[in-house]
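TOPIC: backbone geometry
CONTENTS: sequence, structure tokens:
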Amino acid sequence: MATAMRSAGLLRLSFRHVSSLLFQVPPSPAPSLGVARAGLVRVRCSAAGAGDDGGKRVSARLALTQQVLRDAEERAASAGSDPAPKITLDHVTVNFARSGGPGGQNVNKAIPINTKVDMRFNVKEAHWLGERIKERILQTEKNRINKDGELVISSTKTRTQKGNIEDALQKIQAIIDAASYVPPPPTEEQKKKIEKIAAAAERKRLQKKKVLSQKKEFRRNRTSWD
């Protein structure tokens, strides 16, 4: 039983290691705003027997690893080298409100100034963004997007309207940059390492299956003795 538990743990660790090599968070000085998960993609599981091994039969797990590697190369090849699109005030709608905090900002002035910024960016109607980028934003920021397809961002960072507008634009730009990022394709060394890890995990899985089969066979034979 202990051997089976160790094998299962090593198998889970192996696939986590494969994912960490393929899907990396884009380096950016701006806050990621919870979009680090954008690196994850849905992959198709190839049938057993698929692959580039000259018709050699491979397991579904190894075929899945090969499919992940191929998808990573295709994404990198189709991304190109174009920089991430830049957002401006022409692409958003801005509203102002009374800022929170002790006493509120500028509350003691004769005419209080509303410095809180509520910025709305309609992702669905942003034709200047690529379809892939829009889909990523709609998926990763779905909790911030209303039923009209508007991404709602607020800012009370500074005591001025101009400063908060700039801060809100930077937040939206960070989201666009993260959605535009495509990890580079794995190197030959990384591919060999990933395939080696996947093959080792497959051997451990088969060994666990063999041990379990022998245990069941032993129990059946022992019952027939009685």
